[in-house]
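User: Hi! I'm working on a homework problem where we have to compare a predicted structure to a textbook description. Could you give me the structure for the chain below?
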Amino acid sequence: MSKLGSAILTLALASTAAAQQGGAGATALTIYNQDFAVARTTVDMNLAAGTNQITTTNVTTQLEPDSVVLRDPAGKIAFKIDEQNYDAGVIDQNSLLQKYEGKTIQFSQGRTQDGKLITVDGKIIRATQPPLIESNGTMQFELPGTPLFPTSTDGLLLKPTLRWQIYSAKPAHVAAELAYITHGMSWQATYNVVAPESKDVSSAEHVDVMGWITIQNNSGTEFPQATIKLMAGDVAKIQNKVPGKMYAIGRAMAAEPAPAVTQQAFDDFHLYDLNRTVSLRSGETKQVQFLESSDVTMSRIYEYDGSNMGPINFYTGYHNDQQNFGANSNTKVNVRAEIKNAVANHLGMPLPAGRIRLYRRDSGGQMEFVGEGTIPHTPTDETVNVPVGSAFDVTGTRKQTDFHVDQRAHTIDETFEITVKNQKTTPVKVAVVEHMNRGQNWDVPAKSTTYIKRDSNTIEIPVTVPPGGEVKVTYSAHYTW
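Assistant: Happy to help. Predicted structure tokens:
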């Protein structure tokens, strides 16, 4: 096994050292949000003295064979694995066609009125898509019916299988722990925020926050009894291209009443435990609610970025003396919501990355969709930003009113006038954002109001726009190089 695979298995095994195993049919899963999981199950081995053949089918079709660890968790019984074989070639129609390539089999074309089977012989010239079949003296690029394979076919494999040759010095019974990495399993977090009817947009409001975990099992294997933990964070993992079928997403299953999802810091990541045994079918999408909180304070932020350029990464000596650089203007005032992820705000659990949606109730109490975005992994006491969109009744304009370049003095001076209008019936606080993108060295020698320096080349001018009114601000920027 590679050092990386060993490290991930060690991490996952340690995280579940206290987990209760449910016997040979139970599997403990630690699912990562990078399309893989660590699976742990029990293999009952009755070992005779000498070499033993041990087999298990309690594995997936996307197992990484060199990640397999088979051991006595108690460390009391010594045995030696001489050889390991993994066969994921589960039989299906395509694999049987390939097995009989070059041979003649029967194909069913239906039944007569009295129920007699109608068949035709066909020789499989080529089994891969599109198949090539010789039948009735002609060749065709499709099957002439449903293939009928002999019941005496050898080597049928109905499930993926691990086989070991294990040497034991003496007879022993071992409830061995089997752990391995498998692809085809993933999870993601989604959040729904429900806000009350909007009345005063300038003040904070109290909202309900619900979080869901969505688990997808595309491993090709069913887990009738599984205890599930979820690892949040960017774990180092080589992304191998693992061949396998794609399985359609099945029905979504809402969470039933169950113990609350708990989390704990683990290494440099966070581990979430569903605290329940679930059935996870192949191709199924299962949802479990892990967060529900009310009376959460949310603030609404209006931001007008008139140039919409964003900051520029400067290099030494950079400057731009073209008059129209950064002089463009847009009218959109962006809206976002901010929620403090703090215990005092009825939250405080480290939140895994995912999609977040905002709903608001209208005057009749019906929820309407307002906006959505994504959030990164958010630790406790950090702020969650929820993009809402652009304000309908709040707009802005921006124009360059003066520009001058002095090449001898190595200076650039320009002036902007920014207007923010508010057609709402309540006042609105707007953060006007300006980017000092012409050069590294700048200052603001003249301004109509105060500003806040966000970073090395961004300023924020806070304004309060009265209902049905407008506010104009001006400033001059001076650049040197």
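For your comparison, note the following. Residues 93-148 form one domain. The first strand starts at residue 26 and ends at 32. Good luck with the assignment!
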